[in-house]
Amino acid sequence: MVDQQAMQFNELYGEHVNGLQRRYEKTLGQLAEADVAIEAVLLHSGSRSHYFADDAEVAFRPTPHFSHWLPVRQPDQMILVRPGHQPVYFHVEPASYWTDNRIVIDPAWAGTYEIVDLDAPEQVVDHLG
Fold it and tell me: Alpha-carbon distance 37 to 31, whole Å?
């Protein structure tokens, strides 16, 4: 029973991401028709922030646009959406003594994305072309 539920979830999740992909492709196509050349969209989960003059962090919440695509609640994660391509998830896990930056790649959504592992968010530039 559990395997059947997992398969159904994987299928529904894949349909959800495919629907988002189609909407983004349609919007980028409409922009191209209006002579606004945007080749792709890079969605960022957001960054950590601290309270003013304090070393305490503000509780992190990913941006809604990112969360719509992927259930990962870590800062500096990114998704690249390009027409005609599988979405790319830039899985950023910086090494840190103070914070646990591990992200579990859930098989329920892993196959939906091309996953690129990075050590720092700045490395995304090397993959954008």
Answer: 7
